[in-house]
Design brief:
This protein has 87 residues and is mainly alpha-helical. Helices cover 28% and strands 5% of the residues. Strand 1, helix 1 and strand 2 form a beta-alpha-beta unit. It is globular, with a radius of gyration of 15 Å.
Length: 87
Amino acid sequence: MKRFIEGEDRSQSTFFPEQMDDYIGADNPVRVVDVFVDELDLVGLGFDRVAPQATGRPGYHASVLLKLYVYGYLNRVLFDISAYGAN
C-alpha cells in the first residue's frame, strides 16, 4: 500500500503493556469485517482508486475506507456528509 496513508501495526506494542488487538474482544464483529474486506478483490468490484496516484497528498486505501463504512453500517452509524457543510 505504498503512497497511501498507513496506520500503525496492530501488533506493535504501545506505551502501555497491551497491544492494540488486546482492546478488541475475540468475538467483536470488527474482526469479521477486517478479514472479509481484506479478502475482497476491490479492483474486480469496481473500486477505481485502489491504485494510488503518483502525485499529491496520499489518500487512505480503499479497503480501509470500506472497512469503516461496513463497520459503521453494522452499528447503524449514519454517514451524512451534508451535516458537515459539504454541498
